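Final report, Chapter 2: Outcomes

The project's central promise was a pipeline that accepts a single protein chain and returns its three-dimensional structure in a standardized token representation, suitable for archiving and comparison. That pipeline is now operational. To close this chapter, we reproduce one record exactly as it appears in the project archive, with the input sequence first and the structure output second.
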Amino acid sequence: MTKWEGRPHWEYDGVYLGADEHGEWLGFRVGTFYRRPGMEFVATFSGVMLVPAGGAAHLAAFNDQAAKAAIYVDMATPAAWDGRVLRSVDLDLDVVKLQDGTVYVDDEDEFAEHTVEYGYPADVVAMAEASAREVFAAVRAGVTPYDGTAERWLRELQVSQGM
């Protein structure tokens, strides 16, 4: 992930788990090293990421019980593969579902600031806002793939770890 205009953002390694009708699934094990400018950590949780089919403007992460957020969806430019690297531009807005079921949109203030500071084009702003509204509604309603679909892929990640 980068931020607008190529500014560095999160970087981490995962494993390719497979694909289904929702898109491609990547896995991130306990012990995954996450880094971005000014922050880094080693994950104490495992999770899977859905790269949506059809070029949707978000990336959805589904985490095990050890994570604070059960679901964390970054609004982003449609992801694209560059060899073995998945690339996308994070557009600040996030839809978060905590383990207790609370769902909210995060970083609206950051999105508003960056829209002005970095001059996000009007079509990018509209894309991010529309994606956030759609994802928020889907997560709150528990519609697929936010209905437990990711559990299959979390189990697949455990199998790939030899657990």
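Archive annotation: Residues 122-141 form the longest helix (20 residues).
This record, like all others produced under the grant, will remain available to the consortium after the project formally closes.
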